[in-house]
Amino acid sequence: DNNRQIKTALELAAAAQNIEELRDALSRFEGCQLKKTATNLVLCDGPADARLMLIGEAPGADEDRQGVPFVGPSGQLLNAILDSVGLYREQVMISNTVFWRPPGNRTPTGQEAAVCKPFIERLVELVDPKILVCVGAPAAHTMLGETQGISRLRGKWFSFQTPRLSHPIHATAIFHPAYLLRTPIKKRDVWVDIRMIKAKLDGA
Ligand code: URA
After folding, report:
1. What is the mean pLDDT of the chain?
2. Which is deepest, 90, 120, 152, 199, by most CB within 10 Å?
């Protein structure tokens, strides 16, 4: 059942001492239903010592095909958002709350998110970034334990902590680029938010 799968996930994740071991653990893990319909595991992209880490919702079709997060239209816009403040995709660690594409790009279920959570938490511990940015409401809810809508979470700082982190990590949330592609008027908010993130990264 799901609780047993979560326990297995916690044990596997805790044992991983680096990203490659985490990838190996996920490729052996059979506790998430999404794996059955996905083409590829989509774990993460970016340097293991990145100071900025972004976590999205779930891989889409392009990501599933390539095995790399945020490479489709959302990824292109995400790159432009980073570029706007002189942050480059190559400097940023990017992952998702689940590591396989949900059929039809539906939002991951609570069970799917819960069983993947030990692995994404372990990835945050291994990278230990200065700042964690949740991309979209589902990621913010899963990572921060918040329930408010994304409009209320964006522009604010939260703290992300796990028992294994020696210190809390600054965390915030931004609108998902897929939402911004459908609702371009909201882009002005993301330009404000990314400047806030850059300022904190630079020590403000
Ligand atoms: N949307 C996400 O949330 N994550 C991706 O990797 C791609 C699109």
Report:
1. 97
2. 120
